[in-house]
Specification:
The protein is built from 4 helices and no strands. By secondary structure, it is mainly α. It has one domain.
Length: 115
């Protein structure tokens, strides 16, 4: 329902209201893979389906435990998938930045075209 973040576990953090933390068994689940999964449209549609609340929609831990997900059992495969998806996300972000720069340049040039 909100943002997803990968937080290094130093054992010192505070969870606020409407925040859920996952402690992963690294022998079974890769952090980057799980991060990418939680940001996927597949998971987000499941989260919306089980969400509740009026103005601020949220998902309870109890409801979240009922969601069934299918993931590769091989952690090395999860790592490779996670790394590829993070790389693609970074490329998309870089290209969006470049596009925004070009749009600003176009706007500037159009404003100064008939000076």
């Amino acid at each position: 329902m909100g943002n997803v973040a990968l937080v290094p576990d130093k054992g010192k953090y505070i969870l606020s209201q409407r925040t859920i933390a996952f402690k992963l068994d690294k022998a079974k689940l890769d952090n980057l893979f799980w991060l990418e999964f939680l940001e996927s449209t597949i998971f987000k549609s499941k989260a919306v389906a089980i969400s509740s609340g009026g103005t601020a929609q949220g998902v309870s831990q109890k409801s979240l435990r009922q969601v069934i997900v299918i993931i590769p059992s091989d952690v090395n495969e999860q790592k490779r998938i996670g790394q590829v998806l993070v790389t693609v996300d970074n490329l998309i972000a870089a290209n969006e930045d470049k596009l925004n720069q070009l749009k600003r340049l176009k706007k500037y040039l159009m404003q100064n075209l008939f000076v």
